[in-house]
Amino acid sequence: MDQEPLDTHTGIGIVGAGLVGCLAALAFAKKGYVVSLFDMRADPRTLDRSQKNLRSINLAVSDRGIRALKSVDEEMASRVLEHIIPMKGRMIHDRDGGCESQVYGLFGECINSIDRAYLNECLLQEVRQADVRVFFDHKLKSVRNLDSLPMLTFSTLGGEEKTFEFDYAIGADGAFSQFRYQMQRSMRMSFSQQFIDMQYLELYIPPKPQATCEADKVEIRDHIHSSGTPGDHDELSGQFQMDPGHLHIWPRHDYMLIALPNKDGSFTSTFFSPWKVIESFKTDDEFVAFFWANFPDATKLMGEEHLRSAYHENPRGSLMQVDCFPYNNHRAIIIGDAAHAMVPFYGQGMNCGFEDVRVLMETIQQCSGDIQDAFAKFSESRRDDLVAICQLAMDNYTEMSSKVVSPLYLMRKKFDYFLGKYGHYVGVSWLPLYTMVSFRHDIPYSQAISTERRQQRILRGVQTACFAGFFGYGVLRALEYWNRR
Amino acid sequence: MDQEPLDTHTGIGIVGAGLVGCLAALAFAKKGYVVSLFDMRADPRTLDRSQKNLRSINLAVSDRGIRALKSVDEEMASRVLEHIIPMKGRMIHDRDGGCESQVYGLFGECINSIDRAYLNECLLQEVRQADVRVFFDHKLKSVRNLDSLPMLTFSTLGGEEKTFEFDYAIGADGAFSQFRYQMQRSMRMSFSQQFIDMQYLELYIPPKPQATCEADKVEIRDHIHSSGTPGDHDELSGQFQMDPGHLHIWPRHDYMLIALPNKDGSFTSTFFSPWKVIESFKTDDEFVAFFWANFPDATKLMGEEHLRSAYHENPRGSLMQVDCFPYNNHRAIIIGDAAHAMVPFYGQGMNCGFEDVRVLMETIQQCSGDIQDAFAKFSESRRDDLVAICQLAMDNYTEMSSKVVSPLYLMRKKFDYFLGKYGHYVGVSWLPLYTMVSFRHDIPYSQAISTERRQQRILRGVQTACFAGFFGYGVLRALEYWNRR
């Protein structure tokens, strides 16, 4: 039947040289496997900047991602994470230009901003040095033979088809995974993709044209150093127009603007709104007027010209959630967005994908190197955590866009902070949900949710007790009053 | 960019020459549109029987399907439906070989058994005569340009790629629709496919080897005639081993067997079970023993030899539900299983697909021939009905496999039958759900569900009233008793 040329490789074939695919390639290579990594895109080294797919919402690396990188190779992790910018909290911007900082961690823990394309290039660099065979311009056409030796067929630039044979195959080719689609043809995989009614439009806040005073520069540099990030931050090539130590949010309920710092002093900003909002603007004038009315401080920093060109030229992205199960079929598995694309509102998409790699490698070790067995175990054991984080990501839009300015939310946050920080002195173990998800790589996502549910029940108990106390006190005072009459 | 040969057709391009695709082609051709119909399979006329894809669970045509066929062309409908075998009810087989008939309709209405491959061939024959251009061996590769003139690219047998341009494009290429997959690339379509833990294995009950007595033959022939089916039924080429006027069911809760009659005196039978059941049989002996224990009468009719060969050779099918929304994008739309594959337990898959065609054509007429507008309106207005029937199909497994032998269910069925048949004499409008779905093409699926919900509320009210009455009566009698003491 198969008359295509067959290039027989043993070892591991990985499809998708994005963040998760690269880390998986590194992980297997470090363990001594022969690894081949394929991507449909061109080698980024052969492209100039304008040709690159600069997909963003800047990424926020947090503990799970860092632990996963380190689990593969400590030194590689240091090199890759050299240029992250720590953010210790959210900076909430109101309509009048007022700001309020809300710290993320109990003890100054930070999440870390990094440019997606830059991080990808760092990882590709590591992959090349790890002696992984990398094939760019290879577009996956079919995945077959998963129950014996997986055969991957690609079409190459010249229109030629090439077929490779591997011991095991891994799909890490993103939310619209062709690998997953091909796997589905030979197995019973339940699958759903759900678009949410929300677009994102990427915007840009440039660095300060020049340093206004030397003090500013030093202050910003100090912030970055004091956050304890490894690496060299002295080469700040620009100056930030806002505090780079925060993830900036302009929460406006139905829509919101966010901004994350870049190394060059700029911010990558993203405008999220329902499609009907952005589509209601008939001209760039209306768009700019909307920005002046809702995000005056940001509009000033971005400049009207930029907003006008972004309105006309920047692509509007859609947001999708992918869920499927199982993730494996015999000698193949999907990981990262291919298995569980989530909306970006918890900043965990990449962190979770990296964690997939760590958990998978640990599972292989537990299975004494029986990779097929490990694929099956990973699929079963990872399921609940992946469902949990996808749900958290979906729910967190409400938190970011609305709750962060609600008095009740702020009260709960203070309560969390207080109990989380000082509770252990009085024997109370309390962990804010955000801390568990972003700063505690040792707590699985599903356990974070169940712990949070328990804490919520306790809180409701406390509220009821407080209410009962006040009510009882009131009744007593009333009785006293009547007695005295 | 596009350097492929472009074969410019105007008119309607339809992908998938299955049941729904053929009917859609006929419907548009009758209205005077230029229609091209594509299928990846070979022309069935060029294949011998062993090469044909004889996918089955025999189909049951009911009112919606018949109405849709007639809405396209009354005479065509008569020709196509010539060889259906009416089934007036379910025949429930218990483990001891006992049988009980449960009629479907209030007034003897029937659903009608027909072989899928045969029906498809009839429709293809009609398509050819309707002067539709039919392209077999055309495998869809891409769907583009939906917002101006849809371009469909196919690969043909020789490996050549051909691109066609149409005014409008319709995907009717089944549950694993490539057309849908291609559409998804250029739009935000939410989508889910859900496998249920259930396999099906096709079995076969042969005709009687020869007529045992002439009386039997006449009785069977009479049954078919008295059901008022058009066409020639005198050429019964065989004899049935069971009553052909019923859909036979062996309900055993976790698993079940069904059988539908064929024109040649045989029955196509299907064994449904969770995967773990069929996979638990290590040998054909165990499989046959299971059949003797659970379906002794059917086993006798099938013969051990057939069961053994079916166990080893017949493919085991999986059952999947597909849901997506919206169904349209600019000048393209998906219909039938491509848009809403359902599990087979309500016998409505094909009927619903045919109804798609009727509703779509009516919507085009309402939109004064603006097809793009009609696609959008169809998608919106058809949504609730499609969700409703998919849910009913899923729920009906429990009814077929378990409830049909439950006393409560049978009581409810009698109540339904009585009120449905005689209620109108006392001003009560009552319609059993099965009647609304299968015999009332004028009631949309979603309305059938809402009517049934209302009826269930009334039933619960009646139950409560009965209970209160009995209780009150008991209390009165108790009081009387105490008074007398």
UniProtKB/TrEMBL annotation, chains A, B:
Keywords: FAD, Flavoprotein, Membrane, Mitochondrion, Mitochondrion outer membrane, Monooxygenase, NADP, Oxidoreductase, Pyridine nucleotide biosynthesis, Transmembrane, Transmembrane helix. GO terms for biological process: 'de novo' NAD+ biosynthetic process from L-tryptophan; anthranilate metabolic process; kynurenine metabolic process; L-tryptophan catabolic process; quinolinate biosynthetic process. Catalyzes the hydroxylation of L-kynurenine (L-Kyn) to form 3-hydroxy-L-kynurenine (L-3OHKyn). Required for synthesis of quinolinic acid. This is Kynurenine 3-monooxygenase. GO terms for cellular component: mitochondrial outer membrane. The gene is BNA4. Pathway: Cofactor biosynthesis; NAD(+) biosynthesis; quinolinate from L-kynurenine: step 1/3. One of its GO terms (molecular function) is kynurenine 3-monooxygenase activity. Coiled coil: none annotated. InterPro entries: FAD-bd (IPR002938), FAD/NAD-bd_sf (IPR036188), Kynurenine_monooxygenase (IPR027545).
